[in-house]
Amino acid sequence: MIPDFLHKIRPGSTEKRHPDPLYAEQVRLLYENAPLAYLATLINGAILGYVQLAFIPLGVVLAWYGCLLSVTALRVLVTWRYGKVKRGADEARFWNIAYSIGAALAGIVWGAAGWVLFPPDSIAHQVFVAFVLAGMVAGGVTVLAPRMEACLAFLLPALLPLAVQYLTLRMPLQTAMGVMTLIFLVVMSLSAWNFHRVIRTSLHLRFDKQELEAEVTRRQRAEEQLFQEKDRLQTTVSSIGEGVALIDADGRIEYINPAAEQLFGQRCEHVLHRPPNEVFECFDDQGERIATALEDSLHSATPQRRQYALYGKDTAKYIVEELATPLLDRLGKLVGAVSVFRDVTEVQKFTEQLIHAADHDVLTGLPNRNLLTDRTKQAIARAHRKHESFALLFVDLDQFKAVNDTMGHACGDALLVDVAKRLTDCVREEDMVARLGGDEFVVLLDGPTHRRHVEAVANKILRTLREPFQLGAGSATISGSVGCSLYPDDGRDVESLLGRADAAMYRAKQMGRNQKA
């Protein structure tokens, strides 16, 4: 039975409306990613409850999991309803609020696990609770990042109770865990914000592209009338910023405008009555010479659109987007074709930079956690298939805060860039060095890898980090602590391997720093 309130949902009746399509698309992404998140919630909740039965009464575990089931079922019903109703951009606010409430309820239930499933007598089971909550929060960031209010509605109630629980125990280890939980909450919030901005930028680019296509379509309609008055055509197209070329029924150039002259490095009088393939040197992604859309539009008598690389007279490479349209006379006879050329070189570079920024650290240029996770998953799949091993090294700098405090953040940034270069020089070309944030780095030693090789690389890293760093007019000396994990001995998934390497790194710090573990 579907609850009555779901039948009564009338999103259009909300007082405040958001007709912004970007807002609506963000909400749609929330619901699109929801089913997998719900499944992961139930599975992880069941695993947590089962493991904690060793210290927590069965009734408490069942009550908590029952709450989790109830909240998840409610969210599933809301998601189902969202998929069924006819919705528009002006109803997105209602659905965003509904989703955020569900996320908040889920966060409260998971946060309750930090109290009711938190055994005071078992540090291992306490850590397991923290591990599961951290995993849920990390996974939630990718699902909820399209809307920050939904993301924070889940993150805060999910982690704050655990942090309070640790801090109230007033023991050194638990206090440290509480502080680390708060730090993790802040890091996850910042990661969610960065991911949110990347998503917004990507959506902006998508909508900008749609607007561009609409603009090109409008120009196409205008160009279909330009053959009626050639003088007017030349006056009009000479004033626009995009390149325009016109060919006759025999496929020979009749006209190019000043923008096209500049783009192709050819004067109009020098290209008249010549076929386009003698004037425009166009190449596809594989470097093969191709025909222009202008020629294909004339041969097929249909509009053609194409993007390719073009080399101007100055040998500079341009990425050009071309939209070609056949020209018909009053009787429908093909009399030629016209093309609009748009230089999208800078747009493509900007897009590539955005794609690169989504997977790389801005400061050092190293891969970030997202790319590290993907590469580690690939390494796991390959190692599993070939029955090989590989390793992760978790590297944390010692005395980095002192450099920041005494020499300034600019020197601290320069040190991190130098550290990134040194770590990269310590490994093979097929290995990966990633920066997780702050002064934390992870080295993926792609397989096959043995423990002696891991130890050799770790020792090499420790040695190179001890060498002085030249920072402007001054210098600094630091060290590092390295934690190692080996697949499959220390874990069979990304989270386990990173967790073991992180834990080993902290052991190295406890042994006096400048150590490996």
Automatic annotation (TrEMBL):
Alphabetized UniProt keyword annotations: Membrane, Transmembrane, Transmembrane helix
Residue ranges of every copy of the GGDEF domain listed in the record: 388-517
Domain of life of the native organism: Bacteria
Keyword Transmembrane helix in record: yes
Record-linked PROSITE patterns: GGDEF, PAC, PAS
Location of the PAS domain: 229-274
Name assigned to this protein: Diguanylate cyclase
Positions of the PAC domain: 304-356
UniProt KW Transmembrane helix keyword: yes
Bilayer-crossing regions: 36-56, 62-82, 94-117, 123-144, 151-169, 175-196
Organism this protein belongs to: Aromatoleum anaerobium
SMART domains to which the protein is assigned, alphabetical: GGDEF (SM00267), PAS (SM00091)
